[in-house]
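Subject: sequence -> structure tokens, single chain

Hey, anyone have a minute? Need the predicted structure for the following. Not urgent.
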Amino acid sequence: MSQLQQKIGPAIVQALIVCIVRFFTIPLSIWKGAALRLADRREAASGPDDGRGKSEFPVLDWIRTAWDGMIFLSWFVGAVAAILTLLGGMFSFGFLAGIGSAFAVLVYFYFSVILMSFFKESLILILSIATNVEKLVSKPAADGPAEAGEAQKQTL
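Reply:
Had a minute. Here:
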């Protein structure tokens, strides 16, 4: 019981970090990751070996890249939407309403990358499962247990 009492403080601190601090910092890390993946893909495409023909699933690769593009561009779209909301709110409802609306748009677009990343990861997971099942189904029967039984009979 004393070990549990010693661990309560660090557990509370870690829970607060994971649940509160990480919630506010994860959109930035998701956005930076998408930007870095896009930049790396652009650098690879500009080289002599662009790597486009290597993938067995070009549509899956395109979907991954498109989602990264949407994640990366979302903050720029959010900035433009916030400016338009600010101007529209100021002229329609007043200065404070315009600022509040623009702030709400910025917050929405800041956290929207979490949802976009979740959808991307879910889609990639489903497609990966489907491709693995397809590989298992198309695997020749010679690699299965029947071949092992034949090999055992031949050794006897």
